[in-house]
Amino acid sequence: MHELSIATSILEIIKEEAARHNATRVTKIKVAAGALTAVVPESLAFCFGICSRGTLAEGAVLECEVRPVMARCDGCGREFAVEGWSFLCPRCGSSRTRMVSGQELYVDSFEVEQGCG
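Below the sequence we write its predicted structure tokens.
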């Protein structure tokens, strides 16, 4: 289950950023994950709940948006969702396409409670 290592990495990112912003508590985290990362949102939230115990992110809601695999045609410029692992352009039929998203994994945003001072 690679979600545990991802959850641990997310927690480290959140702790560093929260400290930079004088946050006392993290209440919500939004993560973007490309479909090819094979992240299971429920498993990621479960693992995050475990590894965030005793930290400023304990009890925070973790939302994971799985983003589709997208490609762009080098011939006609159309950007399209890849379906059924076919990277052929649906507009012109060209095979000269390249993936533009679907492998990303990052913390998109998070909400905090601010400390005093």
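The chain is about 25% helix and 35% strand.
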